[in-house]
Amino acid sequence: MPAFAVILPAAGQSTRFGGPRGKLLSDLGEITVLRRAVRAFSARPDVALIVIAARNAEPVSEPKVTFAPGGASRAESVRSALLRVPESIEWVAVHDAARPLVSQDLIDRTCAAALEHGAAVPALPVSLTIKQAIGPLPARVERTVPRDRLWAMQTPQVMRRAALLDAFERCPIPLDQVTDDVQLLELAGQEVWLVPGEERNIKITTPMDLRLAELLLREEGGGQKAE
After folding, report:
1. Over the stretch 93-131, which tens digit does the pLDDT of each residue have?
2. Which of 14, 55, 80, 202 could form a disulfide with 70 if both were Cys (CB 3.0 to 4.6 A apart)?
3. Residue 153 pairs with which residues in a beta bridge?
């Protein structure tokens, strides 16, 4: 993989997680969720830059890390961070700061697919039955959505920096309606390819998710305090 930049959107309010610190500043194996996500990328020789988009972020002293102002939506935070990536870096990977257990193998496979196809995202098959209805609940079911072609998105989402910039400029909908990063490429008519995701690459949204991440980390022997 050529040198690439990593964007970590970290400006969310952690409304569903609650608590005074929020999910990104909560401890996971005696370092925070945010630091663990950073360290998944910081030791990689192909990572040239890590940009954290946040309002009030934990200080991170990693040499590759810089910060950008967080926006009112995820897409606005990503765009803010993208503007900090120099033109000399062709590729970017956007990764949820709340996915601290991403594996090196998953990063490698997603990057390889992006190099081949232009943009790639890890995904898992949707295993739940999905009903369409106009909420909030209670509401009448309109239909059952066939799930054989449905895939749940994960991160990192890897694409060319220039392609993402162009997609932002051409986006036909308000940025607060963009729910993931490659959606911008889709709206611009660009191809996006999926690769198999990983069950352990969970996104921490609630305290229950954090407990599950702690269990996974203990099973792998990764709960020791980092030096």
Report:
1. 999 999 999 999 999 999 999 999 999 999 999 999 999
2. 55
3. 123
Enumerate domains of the chain plus CATH numbers: 4-123+153-219 (3.90.550.10)
Using one digit for the tens of pLDDT, what is the confidence trace for 50-94?
A: 999 998 767 787 889 999 999 999 999 999 999 999 999 999 999
Give φ, ψ of 124 to 5 degrees.
-120, 145
Tell whether pTM > 0.90. yes
110 closest CA partner among 9, 224, 201: 201
If residue 94 lies in a helix (H) or strand (E), which one and from where to where? strand 91-94
Round to whole Å and give the CA distance between 77 and 75.
5
Q: What is the DSSP letter of 155?
A: S
- Burial label for 69, CB within 10 Å (0-12, 13-18, 19+), is middle
Which residues, 6+ apart, have CB-to-CB distance to 24 below 8 Å? 10, 14, 32, 33, 34, 57, 58, 97, 98
Strand partners, 144: 131
Q: Which residue has the tokens 């269990």?
A: 215
pLDDT in the model for residue 227: 35
Residues 6+ away with beta carbon under 8 Å from 92: 4, 5, 6, 7, 82, 85, 158, 159, 160, 161, 164
* Rounded Cα distance, 153 and 203, in Å: 11
Q: How far apart are CA 94 and CA 111, in angstroms?
A: 11
